[in-house]
Amino acid sequence: MRLFIAIEIPDDLNNKIVNLRTDIPGARWVPAEQIHLTLAFLGEVEEDDAELLGRELARIKLPEFTLCFRGAGCFPDRHRPHVLWIGLEPEPLLDKLAVTVRATALACGIRREERAFSPHITLARLKEHVPGEIDAFLDQNSRVKLPPFSVREFTLFQSRLTPQGVVHTALMNFQLKHAAHNT
Ligand code: 2AM
């Protein structure tokens, strides 16, 4: 099974993210129900390893935190834009969660995500380079800031490739610790 670990985005924020869409030729906008903040992409995982992973992720004891989306950009860079994204204000607890879930996967024998953690939400994948439209989007959204939201859980997802496209299914949710119980 093809797995990844991510944070789901509340509906009201999801709508605001969807509303950032503009008319960029060749852009494939991520469908609203697939918008998420990836913590670790794990790829193909044996079912036994996935079960072990679920048990170990459930043992993580990290506190809840607040995230705030801010700014837009593209990967790998503005001259060769393949992915348009919205970024986040720095939050050490988010980095800690990503490091911890990656270490947990590795401890379960699941090869570690190779890309360094770079907090973002993918908005669109670009087939062609249309400099005018992409520059306009980036200029327009470089200072975008969405309302903060509380992250209370993270989720293990299965990603299936179907004839209708990619389907993401939440397999397990893992609660973070309520701020009042952090000590
Ligand atoms: P991203 O869009 O947040 O960058 C589920 O497929 C998620 O895992 C995607 O949203 C993508 O994250 C990430 N992902 C998919 N394929 C990947 C790969 N080969 N390497 C790393 N991350 C990948």
CATH superfamily: Cyclic phosphodiesterase
Class from secondary-structure proportions:
alpha+beta
Number of strands: 10
What value does the Rg take, in angstroms?
Answer: 17 Å
Attached small molecules: adenosine-2'-monophosphate
Distance between the termini: 37 Å
Question: Please, could you describe this protein's structure?
Answer:
The chain has one domain (2-181): Cyclic phosphodiesterase (Cyclic Phosphodiesterase, Chain: A). Helices cover 25% and strands 38% of the residues. It contains 4 helices and 10 strands. It has helices spanning 11-18, 47-57, 92-107, 131-141; strands at 2-8, 27-29, 36-44, 65-67, 69-77, 80-88, 121-126, 149-151, 153-162, 165-175. The strands form 3 sheets. Strands 3-1-9-10 form a 4-stranded antiparallel beta sheet, with helices on one face. It has a 4-stranded antiparallel beta sheet with strand order 2-7-6-5, covered by helices on one side. Strands 4-8 form a two-stranded antiparallel sheet. The model has no long low-confidence stretch (mean pLDDT 94). Residues 4, 38, 41, 115, 122, 159 line the site of adenosine-2'-monophosphate (2AM).
Task: Summarize the entry for a quick read.
This protein has about 180 residues and is of the alpha+beta class.
What would the keywords be for this entry?
4-stranded antiparallel β-sheet; alpha+beta; 183 residues; 10 strands; 4 helices; binds adenosine-2'-monophosphate; Cyclic Phosphodiesterase, Chain: A
